[in-house]
Protein 1
Amino acid sequence: MDEGMTHDALVAVINTAAHLIRHYQPPCQNRKLADKLMVAADALAAATAENEALRELLFLTHASEGHYLYGDDGEMQCNACGCDFKRDSPQQLNEKITRYSMAALAKESGR
């Protein structure tokens, strides 16, 4: 994947190609490629739905003392550690939660 292309941009490209294939049948010589693209688009849709469900579950279980969650209007954010469960990568979520937890631990131990 082009490093400049975001996940959302890649999803949009695949979905657009799948839409075009569904509505405008390609010539026979491109049918195998079109079939592979349709399988990829279906797999991407399933993976995206699963990703969204897991992010929502993580967001809902993140709530605890000091972590006040903002979920109005479809957002999934924590005001304490700055996690954006909709947009942050798993690595970013891990870094933010770890940084917050380490600071809270240091504060609790009086450092």
Protein 2
Amino acid sequence: MHLRTHCLVCMHEVHSCVCAASLQLITQFMKRLYTDKIILGLTCLVFCGIAFVIIYATFIKPDQDTFQVPDAVKPPDPNTVKNTATLMVLRPALRGAQAVTDALGRA
């Protein structure tokens, strides 16, 4: 009789430990599941926003040809870029030619 009650007590302790461990595992899985759902929901929200902007710009207001862009992000004028690049290439060559002219003038 004593052995039977001892076995029942041990089995009850093992059962309670297994239940506690399984409850902890279920809680961890639920947290991960909810985190994944939140990430998935936010990703879906971003994609819906992008789709809305594309649809709005294409179908709802296609005649919009002006945009309010700050001057700091506007690209430079192509002629200005060409002139600046030309000066950057020619300036060292002109300095070298001036140095040669100065050296010949001193000689």
Protein 3
Amino acid sequence: MSNRVEMPEKGKTYNVHHARKGKFQIKVTSIMGEWINGTITEGHAQLVAAESEDLTVGDEVTLRHSLVISYEEVPNASAD
């Protein structure tokens, strides 16, 4: 599956729309190829397994870049 969404940058904060995890905000902590790691700063990420609790503010989340519908950088949020 080809994704034309531009890769985010480490250290910046983004509003994310993910195909499986929904919409939330993260601060990117690392990027390893296809995988984006970050800390949720607003909202919550839905998990696929029904018995799992959603991830919320302060939780670490890993995203597969090819499943991201959009990233929108949050101005001035990464200065924290």
